[in-house]
Amino acid sequence: ALAQLFEAQKLDTIGQLTGGVAHDFNNLLMAVLGSLELLEKRLPADDARGHRLLDNAVQGAQRGAALTQRLLAFARRQELRPETVAVAALVEGMEGLLERALGPSVRIETALPADLPPIQIDPNQFELALLNLAVNARDAMPVGGTLTLRGRAEPAGPDGKPGAHVRIGVADTGIGMDAATLAKATEPFFTTKGPGKGTGLGLSMVQGLVAQSGGALRVASTPGQGTSVDLWLPAARPAPAPAPVPVPPPAPLAA
Ligand code: ADP
Questions:
Q1: Checking phi first, is residue 33 left (phi over 0); if not, alpha (psi -120 to 50) or beta?
Q2: Radius of gyration over every alpha carbon of the chain, rounded to an integer in angstroms
Q3: Taking the chain (255 residues) in consecutive chunks of 10 residues, what is each chunk's mean pLDDT?
Q4: Rounded to the nearest whole angstrom, what is the distance from the C-alpha of residue 17 to the centroid of ligand 1?
Q5: Is 70 a pocket residue for ligand 1 (Cβ < 6 Å)?
Q6: Locate the Histidine kinase domain: which residues (predicted)?
Q7: Secondary structure of the chain in the HEC alphabet?
Q8: Positive/negative CA dihedral, 225, 219, 180, 107
Q9: Is the CB of residue 228 below 6 angstroms from any atom belonging to ligand 1?
Q10: How much distance in Å is there from the Cα of 136 to the middle of ligand 1?
Q11: Which value does ipTM take for this structure?
């Protein structure tokens, strides 16, 4: 538990640092973009090479600004808005999105029982988390495969934390991870995808959301066989029972 506390604090510190740096960086980029705009006006219209160079600089700065937006989202400057969410219905609503993200060579299988208890989570962030996991799965299955989305009610959390949980598994039949990659997979900024392809923020974002929703995340992987990411989320408390409808007293028996 102490190790977990340190881990949580480390993530929190990284998040704050990231948020602060991203914010300052964004301001700098806005100043750069402003100057480039002024420069463009002073550049002779017939200086084609000059305009091309300027365009490159503007595009680079804009890409940087887009990245800082993602970093700010990661540092979670925005508040979570948890709601009672029925997982099967939410996934059903994402079907088109998932199909497009995974491409035609990946088969999607879902096993989400209709009687799965609802969970308490921010539905938009949860969708983003599932999409992140699906994109990771696609990247791990360059020649195709199967993505399986499973849901199951569990009486406790993965570490024995008591209370009803819903376990949501996202499994792929991809390349898997070796032990060293698996150990670092959820660390912010850890990526094996190379510059411009991965940010290393996907799994840490998912883990952050799950932790803030009172749950836990486990990753299991076998090289050459595939990866399974399991989210354990506390089941939402059932809505309070409706107040009993008063029963009118029986009419007095006629004498
Ligand atoms: P990114 O996808 O940007 O690299 P993530 O935090 O989502 O960032 O993932 C970190 C790393 O974990 C990936 O670069 C990859 O090495 C590994 N990884 C994550 N998901 C999977 C998966 N489903 N199969 C194999 N490796 C994975």
A1: alpha
A2: 24
A3: 62 70 80 87 92 90 78 67 94 89 93 94 89 93 97 93 94 98 91 82 87 93 98 85 72 69
A4: 23
A5: no
A6: 20-237
A7: CHHHHHHHHHHHHHHHHHHHHHHHHHHHHHHHHHHHHHHHHHCCCCCHHHHHHHHHHHHHHHHHHHHHHHHHHHCCCCCCCCEEECHHHHHHHCHHHHHHHHCCCEEEEEECCCCCCCEEECHHHHHHHHHHHHHHHHHHCCCCEEEEEEEEEEEECCCCCEEEEEEEEEEECCCCCCHHHHHHCCCCCCCCCCCCCCCCCHHHHHHHHHHHCCCEEEEEEECCCEEEEEEEEEECCCCCCCCCCCCCCCCCCCC
A8: positive
A9: no
A10: 6
A11: 0.99
| Residue for token pair 């991965």 | 198
Residue with tokens 């969708």: 127
Residue carrying the six token digits 């508040």: 79
